[in-house]
Design a protein that fits this description.
Strand order of the largest sheet: 2-1-5-4-3-6-7
Structural class: alpha/beta
Shape: globular
Low-confidence stretches: 4-35
Helix content: 25-40%
Mean pLDDT: 82
Strand content: 15-25%
Order of helices and strands: HEEEHEHEHEEH
Distance between the termini: 99 Å
Radius of gyration: 29 Å
Number of strands: 7
Largest sheet: 7 strands, mixed
Length: about 200
């Protein structure tokens, strides 16, 4: 009888003490969201500053200016107007789903390491996912500046629909050559720079 009475009185005593089963539990801190991976690519701010020891534009037939387009930088910050890009520059248009693009990216990375302030190497990631570009950049150790062109506006402005695509721009910001012959290697890149920009690498 006493046991039954204690069983009936226990909820009343707990309620009086403020320890009911429905009492609010202390709030747990929200789980921390996983930090976004740092970008493997360089900032785009230097693209609008002429390379320190850039060669003057080679004498010869002047080409067209870069298209009047503004593209976002992979690392964020102020979007870059292509007309403000200072040459000489080698622009590589690529996508992570394109096997020849992946094949030639290491050659462009080595080219950027040999630039020595004479020219710029710029990537334009086109028709791709941010995650795909990020992974390829990490896997291949690509760290030159990268612009984003999800709607392939750059290629359409050049009237080119090829992947990969390489555009050589002189010190005056004029297009000297556009190459869509497939994956380029170190020797072919060196020959193109010598012939169209007058730069030895």
């Amino acid at each position: 009888m006493m046991r039954r009475l204690a069983f009936l009185l226990a909820p009343l005593l707990l309620a009086a003490a403020g320890c009911t089963a429905t009492a609010e539990q202390p709030e747990r801190p929200a789980p921390a969201t996983r930090a976004e991976r740092p970008s493997p690519f360089a900032d785009c701010t230097p693209l609008t500053v002429a390379p320190a020891s850039a060669s003057p534009a080679p004498v010869g037939k002047a080409g067209d200016q870069l298209p009047d387009l503004t593209l976002n930088c992979f690392t964020g910050g102020t979007p870059v107007s292509l007309r403000d890009v200072k040459g000489p520059a080698v622009i590589n248009v690529w996508a992570s789903w394109c096997p020849p693009c992946r094949k030639e990216l290491p050659a462009f990375q080595r080219l950027s390491e040999r630039a020595d302030g004479r020219f710029q190497v710029i990537g334009v990631n086109s028709r791709d996912s941010r995650g795909g570009a990020q992974s390829i950049g990490e896997d291949y150790g690509v760290d030159f500046p990268m612009l984003l062109d999800q709607g392939d506006a750059f290629q359409r402005a050049l009237e080119r629909n090829a992947f990969p695509l390489t555009v050589l721009v002189d010190a005056d910001g004029r297009i000297r050559h556009t190459d869509a012959t497939g994956a380029l290697d170190d020797a072919r890149l060196a020959a193109l720079l010598q012939r169209h920009l007058g730069v030895r690498v």
